Amino acid sequence: MIDPRTKLLQAFWRYEQALMANDVAVLDALFASSPATIRSDGGTTLVGHEQIAAFRAGRPPVPPRRLTRVHVRDLSPTTALVVAESVRADGGTGVQTQVWSLDAGRWQVTTAHVSLAPAPPAPHLPDGADLSTIWRVAATDVNELAPFPEPAPSAGLPLTGLTVAVKDLFAVAGHRIGAGNPAWLAAAPVETDSAWAVTALLDAGARIAGIAHTDELAFSLAGTNIHYGTPPNAAAPGAITGGSTSGPAAAVAAGLADVALGTDTAGSVRVPASYCGLYGLRTTHDVVPRDGLVGLAPAFDAVGVLTRTAAHLAAAADALLPPQHQPTDPITRVVVVPALMDLAGPAVQEAVSAALLALALTSDAVVETATEIGPGQLESWFAAFRTVQAAQGWAEHGAFVAAAPGAFEPAVEDRFLAGAQITAQELETATAVLDQARAALTALLPPGTALALPSTSSTAPRVGASAVEIDFTRAATLRLTCLASLAGLPALSVPTPRVGTSPVGLCLVAGPGQDRSLVELATGGSL
Amino acid sequence: MIDPRTKLLQAFWRYEQALMANDVAVLDALFASSPATIRSDGGTTLVGHEQIAAFRAGRPPVPPRRLTRVHVRDLSPTTALVVAESVRADGGTGVQTQVWSLDAGRWQVTTAHVSLAPAPPAPHLPDGADLSTIWRVAATDVNELAPFPEPAPSAGLPLTGLTVAVKDLFAVAGHRIGAGNPAWLAAAPVETDSAWAVTALLDAGARIAGIAHTDELAFSLAGTNIHYGTPPNAAAPGAITGGSTSGPAAAVAAGLADVALGTDTAGSVRVPASYCGLYGLRTTHDVVPRDGLVGLAPAFDAVGVLTRTAAHLAAAADALLPPQHQPTDPITRVVVVPALMDLAGPAVQEAVSAALLALALTSDAVVETATEIGPGQLESWFAAFRTVQAAQGWAEHGAFVAAAPGAFEPAVEDRFLAGAQITAQELETATAVLDQARAALTALLPPGTALALPSTSSTAPRVGASAVEIDFTRAATLRLTCLASLAGLPALSVPTPRVGTSPVGLCLVAGPGQDRSLVELATGGSL
């Protein structure tokens, strides 16, 4: 016995597929055969099945489109509303609002309204934007003494023609690593070799657009570097980009580069991806070598990339992930944990749920609710993660931080100093909790299963938001992002249509090594 | 106790007025205060009252628009759907689909989808269209020997700059009257004076664009003249224009003239208006002098005009109606007779009902159902009308028709010959029935009240439709149009948005002398 909601979604998806196939007979059958049935667009309202069928028979096929969000509302036991958003290959968007009625066990459309809009203008920075908040070294600044390393020369490589914004934690041959802090930069040597990940992108044909700022030593999610300024978020003017991969994300969002190469310890790729409307992949821990990278907490640090398009994401992920990586298991099941959804505000929950429904329909994955992970458990996992992260941060950089008092933003300095206070006993207890958490998450996510959650608890806060607001947002977001981090799992933030005027991401987390499965899930339905 | 449907419409209209006034507080209050509320256009879907209110607060006022059709569907006892079509001053159109929910006695919008479309291209004839099917004498054909009479010279008159297509039943000084029949034309004298109605339009500043064809002696509703061809319907390519004011309607629909001057005995203005998407006014019997006009049935013949725009209608009506005409009584009540609605097909009924609802909301008129006129009564009135019309047609033109056997299309000739068979007794009985009908209709339509009905039973049949189809359509349409004719009442066909791809009209009939009230009702809400 299939429940009515499932039957409704099956009927909706059958309709969408028939539309793409221009299967007029199926479309006609899914519209209620009544003189009261309505089909509108901006210019015409057709009333009655006969008129609608005549219109449909006479028009050309609908251009290919991909569902981006599907909203469902129950209006009565036998009436439901579906509002489906979609995007076309040219970036244009569409919305269809449908009223469905259940009659004799069959759902049929009784009213439909469709409308289209052209592609919105690509995000861009206002004239006179201060690019020095994005780049520490832009390609236009390099001179003969310190050129950026060149991409592999053969044309037609996967990333040929694309440019990369490198987070200022990766070694770029001929340059120093700045790590978002002037004192660090001053003490840093000129690198002789590029980091493994930089080299991998160059080998795939990408050219370096610049070295872009990071939050200080990556120990922040805000993207508000007190030394270099706050990079502008072209996708949400007036809002922060989030961090710590702030400069690279800003560059990609503004179209100044195609791929951002970043790191993600506790969300530093996923948060700016969500705030800037980008795809953002955190790779499985230890799958992408971290050679030539200034880390923060080696147990959690992972390389990641951010892109504007699914095609760029697939190409960049391909360049970083080893070809002998385990085979892709198509994701056929997506689990949702209510306690995680509840960490986001209602508007973000709605956007993420609607995006997930679109993704599930498009990929033919089932969506299930997993209640075995509750709020208390999440809270203890989060506390353990923070403990281990702070202890590792202090172990990694304590000496430098202690030797340069006042060189860091106070909040960042405080985070490092808190790590100094953690006792061996506390660390041991926390490590044991994380072992349990990792086991629970790995068990939840066998091959073929992904966890869906909001990438961030909110859309991007405004530049200049109060410390209280930033902390509140950060605390809720960290409880979402820490899961993939603590278990070393791959996680992909997929942009959803906007929440009001701001982007936000749907995050998909898979079992270890399932990076490609996530990329395929998110890009499989792309045009 | 106001019923829920009325309260729904009141809420809908309050919303529409608030939108026009950009009264954001009222708009916000009429949207359900819930995070689940949805508002879409083609480019954006906003979810949650907060997002929608923020959007509304930040946008400029919505451009003025006039509702053209409002469709309502009950989805459940507490949920209803409203689909409202509108037109803007530039001719662009819009559709809003709204789901309303009744909660604690208040209707509020829970989902809205709005979309806009630019003005459709103006109807025009294909290149190479045969204009000789429209004009017997076009302005471009006249020579120095037979120029058209000039308009009154002073500029700035109500019709200055507008052109008139004159039905070939009106005298135009210097020309003969053709009456749609070559034999009639051959026998006709050159007129020395223009008809009263022609002179009235010239005096108001209009220029004659040409003398346009009529169905033979106006005794048809089809517009398919076997001698001069079928004029093209630019508003519904491939369909007939309807008649008998066929040529003038074709000219106005194609933009070759601004005003059609016609006659209406049994629907000859209203039918082509409906088929061609024009305004069409049949004036009160005997209010506009018929001097210089070849009539058909003097008891019913009335002068009328057709126009593309409400402004042209108002100006042309003003030129024809005497200035001392009784004062305008605003129409505050519109009655609908189910037996009349049932004469139209479901698609036309739906279009007309939805147009009437839009008109009622815009004009603040109440709509009531009048069941005192039933199908049996309508049938007996129609039969009596046909009897008197045929008898009068024979009295008027029998001698000519009898003297020129084979000069007319057989169907037209048959109609005249049928009139010869009517006995004095039959005529007396029919006249008595019409007296009763006239009394009943006049009682139904006191000043301030109008009757609403479909202008025609269907949209325009295709050129070449079978005789059976034409007859079927004609029979049902005549039962609708005969009412105003038999009672000498003014009737106005107002174009509604299309039924599928074809125009159709909403007809409004008022008490005798209430011509201006009808024009004001139909044009009062115009932009």
Mean pLDDT of chain A: 95
Query: Structural class of the helices, strands and pairings of chain A?
Result: alpha/beta
Q: What is the domain total for the residues of chain A? A: 2
Name given to the CATH homologous superfamily of the largest domain in chain A? Amidase signature (AS) domain
Q: Give the CATH topology of the largest domain in chain A.
A: Amidase signature (AS) enzymes
Largest sheet of chain A: 11 strands, mixed
CATH architecture identity of the largest domain in chain A: Alpha-Beta Complex
Assign the CATH class of the largest domain in chain A. Answer: Alpha Beta
Largest interface: A-B, 50 and 49 residues
**How many DSSP H or I helices of chain A?**
15
State the strand order across the main sheet of chain A.
7-9-8-10-12-11-16-17-15-13-14
Oligomer: homodimer
Portion in strands of chain A: 15-25%
Q: Cα-atom Rg of chain A, whole angstroms?
A: 24 Å
Helix content of chain A: 25-40%
Number of strands of chain A: 17
* CA(first)-CA(last) distance of chain A: 35 Å
Shape of chain A: globular
Low confidence ranges of chain A = none
Protein model, in words:
- The structure is a homodimer of 527-residue chains.
- By secondary structure, the first copy, chain A, is α/β, with parallel strands linked by helices.
- Chain A has 2 domains: 4-117, Nuclear Transport Factor 2, Chain: A (Roll); 131-373 and 427-523, Amidase signature (AS) domain (Amidase signature (AS) enzymes), CATH 3.90.1300.10.
- Chain A has 15 helices and 17 strands.
- Chain A has helices at residues 4-20, 24-30, 49-58, 182-187, 196-203, 246-253, 270-276, 310-320, 338-341, 346-363, 375-403, 410-420, 424-444, 467-487, 515-523, and strands at 38-40, 45-47, 65-76, 79-88, 93-103, 106-117, 135-138, 163-167, 207-212, 259-264, 279-282, 302-307, 333-336, 366-369, 449-454, 491-495, 505-510.
- An 11-stranded mixed β-sheet of chain A has the order 7-9-8-10-12-11-16-17-15-13-14, with helices on both faces. A 6-stranded mixed β-sheet of chain A has the order 2-1-6-5-4-3.
- In chain A, a hairpin with a 4-residue loop joins strand 4 and strand 5.
- The longest helix of chain A has 29 residues, at 375-403.
- The mean pLDDT of chain A is 95.
- At the A-B interface, strand 2, helix 3, strand 3, strand 4 and strand 5 of A face strand 2, helix 3, strand 3, strand 4 and strand 5 of B.
